[in-house]
């Protein structure tokens, strides 16, 4: 008896693409059953039919055909035991294969002529702002940069827009006549969506309370209303670029193309770029080409198993730590034990359930992001390390050059820091570095780059800031540090100061190496004075 099933909306297009191929797989099984009826079933045809039944058992459940998946599993077991095949098994085999065909045919693909076209949302910006002149200036600048723009004068109007499209990003004002609560509620709704909508907050206020609340609700940053429209849209473009570029690449290896396409369709909305491979024997060359962040392996594949591929990965130092998830139709404890013994991080049962796949992969991605953050952060000071800050500074340089904006670069060196360690102890020196890292994070904007360059040396990149403003910020930082009191190993208190050099694009150089050199030269000049000071070029 056939049962009614519904393909999940996210997989409707994939089902349409593979529907004919699934019927061909059923026909292969039917041909084997007919051959058995004629007593003419050879080992090759039986093996092919068993393989197709195995694939159907794994894929049909993913497309919502749970009953057909179970029937295919039973077909796989019956065809995979040649010693049990005979006249007595024919009635059950015939019943199962007819039911599977009926199940597949009952879920017809959607006609391309009636399929609803996807709205062009990828390049649209929603501006939620009740200051109409400001909103229009921002919209004009965004349009000049190639963005489609939707305007909403209130959170309620924004919800009406969101009901018909999903923007690539949202620029959200926090303050309306009705207060801030509805704006905060909208922020939570946007960041809690699946997938989340990236939000940049626009406000005249820039208090710590606001920043903490925005972070709690998943906001990506702040844009001051006092900024010129080009600089505000710069922030929006960075937000959209960061959100739209997949941060994680997953390599999925399975000999069933329908499963591979389903995995891609399920994960793409969550910012995962899925690269598929149906020939496991090409795994090693594809691995070097793709360089994935996460790997998904099917267990049962011709030529080489997923467990064997996992062992190969774990035996190579380059890939020993990459997260590996394994797909398997086997549920017995011995099979699961072999999967984990091979070094897999997690396993998923076939047929793949969309929500479970997304949850398991996102879990691995979050752990991967945590490891990356730890790898890019100086553990003592909490600011970026040298490698990460260098890459971030290069990005700021490209933006400054492209949009003809100033870029200030400051090099900082804590004065006589070796004496701090020698006189007061290394524990006191570490306390100084930790506190200075905190002061740096509190003193500079979220879009600034703050990095520990090595030892007691730090580098700061300030996009859109003139040399004069950079000097003022460094002066405030120096004053804040001078008020700090530190305890030495002998109980004596001491203070710390720093020297700094500032260079600014375009005045002091046309590229980042030139800025580094000027800043280092200014730093050297500052240190020669033997006292804490901030020097500037010119």
Q: Keywords, please?
A:
538 residues, alpha/beta, Rossmann fold, 5-stranded parallel sheet, 16% strand, elongated
What does it look like?
It is a single chain. The C terminus is likely disordered. The chain is 50% helix and 16% strand. Strands 2-1-3-4-5 form a 5-stranded parallel sheet, with helices on both faces. Strand 14 and strand 15 form a beta hairpin. The protein folds into 4 domains: 98 residues, Four Helix Bundle (Hemerythrin (Met), subunit A) (Up-down Bundle); 121 residues, Response regulator (Rossmann fold, 3-Layer(aba) Sandwich); 93 residues, Rossmann fold; 151 residues, Reverse transcriptase/Diguanylate cyclase domain (Alpha-Beta Plaits), CATH 3.30.70.270. Helix 1 packs antiparallel against helix 4. The protein starts with 11 loop residues before the first helix and ends with a strand. It is elongated, with a radius of gyration of 30 Å. The protein contains 19 helices and 17 strands. The protein has 538 residues and is α/β, with parallel strands linked by helices.
